[in-house]
Amino acid sequence: MTEKVFAVIGTGAIGGYYGARLHHGGHDVHFLFNSDYQHVTEHGLTVDSHYGDYSIDKKQLNAYADTSEMPKADVILIALKTTQNHLLDTLLKPLLKPDSLVMLLQNGIGAEQEIAQHFDLPYVGGGLCFICSNKTGPGHIHHIDYGRITMGLYGEKQTTALDEFAEDLLQAGVDVEIDRNIIDARWKKLLWNIPFNGLSTVLNADTKQMMNCNELVELSRSIMGEVQQAAQTTDTLIEDALIDAMLTNTAKMKPYLTSMLLDRRHQRELELQYMYKNAIDMADKQGVSMPKTQALYQQLCFINQQIKNEG
Amino acid sequence: MTEKVFAVIGTGAIGGYYGARLHHGGHDVHFLFNSDYQHVTEHGLTVDSHYGDYSIDKKQLNAYADTSEMPKADVILIALKTTQNHLLDTLLKPLLKPDSLVMLLQNGIGAEQEIAQHFDLPYVGGGLCFICSNKTGPGHIHHIDYGRITMGLYGEKQTTALDEFAEDLLQAGVDVEIDRNIIDARWKKLLWNIPFNGLSTVLNADTKQMMNCNELVELSRSIMGEVQQAAQTTDTLIEDALIDAMLTNTAKMKPYLTSMLLDRRHQRELELQYMYKNAIDMADKQGVSMPKTQALYQQLCFINQQIKNEG
Question: Which residues does the UniProt record annotate as the domain Ketopantoate reductase N-terminal (chains A, B) (predicted)?
Fold first, then answer.
C-alpha cells in the first residue's frame, strides 16, 4: 500500500463513494464538503453500498469546508459536476504538489486539457465511472450497483502514480481499467451520452420510450455518426460496430432515466459545456461540423436557461 | 356575381369562416360536416366574427355528412387539417367536374401536386390563410381577427376561375392576394412555420420565451437557412433580408403559441407530413440536405407517436 495523501473535491454520490472506498482500504483521505459540512462533523459519512454498507465515524472523517485548510495531496479526485468547474481555479491551488496526480471523475470532454494548461500540471487524468449511485441526504450516499472506473492520463505523459492509484483502488474493492488515452475513452462515453442524455432531456423520455420510435433511433444513430466523425479529429477511431452495439444494448435495457433528464427534473443546471460545447468546438476547429448535435445543444441551452431563471 | 356551386370540405375554423362569408355574399355554398352534422341540422351554423356576427339558419344551411350526396361543385375548398388528407381519396371524387377549381386552404407544401396528379385535375391551387379563428363548439366558429388569403394555382396552368373566385371572396368581404406561384408563397410561410412551430412544440414554449434565448434564435436562423436552400430547388428565391425581418418581427410580437404547440397541448395529431417531411424530401431529391430541420422533424415524430398512443 502506498503512503499517499488523497483529497476528494466534491463529496457527493461519486466522490463520497470512491473516497470512502479508499478510506476503507486504509488510506489517508481528506474530503471537501459544501452544504453537508456541518452535518458530517456531527454524524460522519455513511455509504449504503451494494457491496456492503460502510460508514466513517465523525472522529475518523477528515472533513473540510475549505481546501486551504486541507493538506497538500498526492492524488486529488475531482468529483464536482462540471457545471462547478469554474470553482477549481480557487479550490485546487492549495492542494497541489509539483507532481500531484489530478483525476477528474466527471462527464464530458476537454476538462483535463483545461486544468493541465491552467495550472501547468504534469499529471492530469480522467476517470469514467460506470456506477449507479445517489446522494440521498446530507453525508448519506446510496450506492446501488456497479462502480468500475476506466481511467487514463491526458496527453503523452506517463507516471507510475496512475498505476499505483489503480492498485490502491483495486485493493480497496474498486474495479479499474486503464485506458492509456483518456480522450479515446471520453469520446466513447460521449458516443452514447451526447444523443441519449440530450434527446431524453429535450423530450422528457426514458430510453425505452426513445427506442420505441424509429425516427428517434435514426436521429440518435445520426448524432452518433457526428460524434464518430468528431472523435477522428483527435485520432480516436470509433467503429460502426460500436454504434450498432450501443443501439442494440440500449433497446434491450430496462427503461433508464439519463442523468441529464434527472438534472432537468430536479431543476439542476445541465452539464452542457463539457458534454456538448467542447465536443462541437473541438470538431469545428478541425473543420468537422456536427449540425444535429449543435441543434440539440441549442435546444438544451434553452432548457438550461429556463432552469437557471426558475432556480 | 358568378352562378357557381361552392363546396366546403371540412367545416371548421377555416372552412366554416370562409364558407359562411361566401354564403353571406349570396353564393350557393354546400358544407361537409363530420361530428357536427347532427347539431347543425338542428341549430345551423354560427360565426361570431370580428367583422360582424353571422349565422346560417338550419333551413338555409346546405349541410351534408357525406360528399356523395353533395352536388358537383365549381369551386371546392378543402379546409381539413392535412393529417386528414388521406380521406380526400374518397371525399373529393363525387364533387369533381372536369374543370372544378380545387383550393387547399391548408398548411405545408406538396398537397396541390399530390391532388392534381392523383385525380388528374387541371386546376388545383392553394390558399394561405392569415387568420385568427377557432371552432369553439359544434357548428360554432369564433373569428378573432384578420382573414386575408394569399392564393395561387399549382403548376403553370392559368384559369379565369381563380380570378373569379378571388372576386367572389373580395365581394364577400375577404381580403385576397393572388400569388401566381403558390409554391413561392408556401415556402415563405414554411420559412417561419418550420422553425417556430416545431421548436415551440418540442420545447413547449411561446415565441417570446424562444426569442429570449440567443442559442435558440441562432438555431431558428439556421433552420430558416435550410428552408431557404430547399426553396431554391423549386426556383423560389428567399432573400436573407426576409429571414432577418421575420426574426425581428417575431422578437417584437406578443407571446404567441403556435398552432402545432396548441395541437400538442390538445393531444391532436401533428401536421408533420406536409409541414416537414414533404419539404425535406423535395430538397433531398435535388441533393439539398436539411440536417437541423430533419432532427427537429424526427423529434416531432416522437411527440406525435406519444400523442397517437395516448389518444
Answer: 7-154
